[in-house]
Specification:
Residues 417-506 form the Peptidase S33 tripeptidyl aminopeptidase-like C-terminal domain. This is Alpha/beta hydrolase family protein. InterPro entries: AB_hydrolase_1, AB_hydrolase_fold, Pept_S33_TAP-like_C, Serine_prot/Carboxylest_S33. Belongs to the peptidase S33 family. The protein has 509 residues and is α/β, with parallel strands linked by helices. The protein has a domain at 55-151 and 200-261 and 430-507: Rossmann fold. The chain has 20 helices and eleven strands. The chain has helices spanning 18-32, 46-49, 64-69, 122-126, 131-134, 157-162, 176-194, 196-199, 204-217, 230-241, 264-282, 297-305, 307-310, 323-333, 340-351, 356-362, 368-381, 388-401, 454-464, 484-496; strands at residues 73-80, 90-98, 106-111, 135-141, 223-228, 246-252, 313-314, 320-321, 442-446, 467-472, 505-507. The chain has a nine-stranded mixed β-sheet with strand order 1-2-4-3-5-6-9-10-11, with helices on both faces. Strands 7-8 form a two-stranded antiparallel ribbon. Helix 9 (204-217) packs across helix 10 (230-241) and helix 14 packs across helix 16 (356-362). The radius of gyration is 24 Å and the shape is globular.
Length: 509
């Protein structure tokens, strides 16, 4: 998610041909015959791949009461924290299952994105979609968060509540050196409280390998997968690692594999376009808090929210609506037009000196576990900025791309975020995937997607040789939202592997 003044990656795999491995093994054996006895056999992943899931009550799982009431079952699967050391520490990945309502095709593993979005409840969101009739819907809390263990932990609950600058809602009035000190302390705290082993193995490659263990535990020879947003990066990474184990994949609201997961300039431009679309819709009403001229909406919005930098609004429950909170709430509301009326009500209240409605929306993304996994993954996989001059240039270009969210305060430099001080090296970087032997995949991209702009979907479809469904609209993702021209071809593909027509493009009637 794009936030202004944010405070706070190519995989390489080497594979030896079997003949070379055999020759090396023979050579090693010959040299060792007259020496010490052979040691224990090398560790393997067999015990992980041979697990049987014990589905049962969701009691004791995060959100378990709601899951159980809706008829879901839960289970956990054991995985190595470090796949390079399978005899080392292990983790437990939490899963949920909603059984197919009709004639079952397969298990459909799902991921809602993030990085770091809890996934156990995603089957609930898909329960009324056509895919629930033919597939067991599998939710998953990825390693490090939610009902999975162990957790990535960087702050206590109290520190989370008070550490808004480190959360990415940087106070524009704080000195740069202080912000960087906080960001460095945040990174060091993650290392102390999480441990370097887990902190270095919460990235996309490790989660993709977990997904393959889950596939085997589900009894599926090949993976059927639906991923949204960052979940598309998980899907494309799985496809790179295990192309022969893919049955079908639908990648909705896709992340461009050649860019950072959350490129600040690209996403700034995306959310400005969504803001402009919202403003044009709002301007149809004479009561729009941003006025009836969409061309002046950014200016009106800045005039409305900038006073909060100096003077936050106190609410009845003693919380404060500050500049960062209202920006977060606005951005959260721009993900989908269904949230636009709520944003209008919140901005109208703000104009009258009240902040309760916007504070409710600002809390949507404020979950410590999710936030910390989110940051850990980005720090492991995005191109790190360790030069203030580069950070300043990115900040300048982001402000230009999204004038609505420019606080307008003067500043000669921008601070380095937490990733500049991250205590473990990158484990992946943006790259062009080169995958041979993949079946046909399906990519769904929205022309006005604010968080994962449309060109990224075109790029992903091209690199994977996937079919591209283009939906004309302004929202984040389009699959399984009741849009027939998207859902019907997607379901047909998932059920009988018939890809949609090439160049399919549609819009809501």
């Amino acid at each position: 998610m794009f936030t202004p003044r944010k405070g706070i990656a190519a995989s390489t795999r080497v594979t030896l041909l079997p003949a070379v491995v055999a020759a090396l093994a023979l050579l090693t054996t010959a040299c060792a015959e007259d020496k010490a006895p052979a040691g224990p056999p090398p560790p393997t992943l067999d015990r992980y791949y041979q697990q049987t899931l014990a589905w049962g009550s969701c009691d004791g799982y995060q959100g378990g009461a709601e899951l159980g009431a809706a008829g879901l079952e839960c289970a956990r699967v054991t995985v190595p924290i470090d796949y390079g050391n399978p005899d080392g520490d292990t983790g437990r990945i939490a899963l949920s299952r909603l059984r197919a309502a009709g004639k079952r095709v397969a298990s459909l593993l799902t991921n809602p994105g993030g990085p770091g979005a809890p996934g156990l409840d995603l089957p609930l969101a898909l329960a009324k979609s056509p895919v629930a009739e033919r597939f067991d819907l599998i939710g998953m809390d990825v390693r490090g968060l939610g009902a999975s263990t162990p957790h990535v932990t960087c702050r206590t609950a109290a520190e989370f509540e008070t550490g808004q600058r480190v959360l990415g809602r940087t106070d524009p009035l704080v000195e740069i050196d202080q912000i960087e000190e906080e960001n460095e302390e945040y990174a060091n705290s993650c290392a102390r409280r999480t441990g370097l082993t887990l902190l270095g193995h919460v990235g996309t490659v490790d989660v993709a390998r977990d997904m393959d263990v889950v596939r085997a535990a589900l009894g599926e020879q090949k993976l059927t997968y639906f991923g949204g947003s960052y979940g598309t990066r998980l899907g494309s990474t799985y496809a790179e690692l295990f192309p022969d184990r893919v049955r079908a994949m639908v990648l909705d609201a896709p992340v461009d594999p050649t860019t950072n997961i959350s490129d600040p300039v690209i996403t700034a431009a995306g959310f400005q376009r969504a803001f402009d679309a919202y403003a044009a819709d709002c301007a149809k009403s004479p009561d729009c808090p941003l006025g009836t001229d969409p061309a002046k909406a950014s200016e009106k919005y800045r005039a409305l929210v900038k006073p909060l930098i100096q003077q936050p609004i106190s609410t009845a429950d003693r919380r404060k609506l500050d500049y960062g909170a209202v920006t977060t709430a606005t951005i959260a509301s721009l993900y989908h037009p269904a949230s636009w009326p709520g944003l209008t009500r919140g901005l109208t209240e703000l104009a009258r000196g009240h902040g309760e409605a916007l504070l409710g929306d600002a809390g949507v993304y404020e979950d410590a576990s999710s936030d910390e996994v989110h940051r850990a993954v980005l720090c492991l996989e995005e191109v790190r900025v360790t030069d203030r001059a580069v950070a300043t240039d990115i900040d300048r270009r982001s402000r230009t791309a999204a004038p609505a969210f420019d606080d307008g305060l003067p500043g000669s430099a921008a601070p380095l975020d937490a990733c500049a001080f991250w205590p473990v090296p990158p484990t992946a970087q943006p790259h062009v995937p080169h995958v041979a032997g993949l079946p046909k995949l399906v990519v769904v991209a929205v022309t006005g997607d604010p968080a994962t702009p449309y060109p990224g979907g075109v790029s992903l479809a091209k690199t994977l040789g996937a079919s591209l469904i283009t939906y004309e609209g302004t929202q984040h993702g389009a699959a399984f939202e009741g849009i027939a021209c998207v859902d019907e071809p997607v379901l047909k593909y998932l059920v009988d592997l018939t890809p949609p027509a090439e160049g399919l493009r549609c819009s809501k009637p």
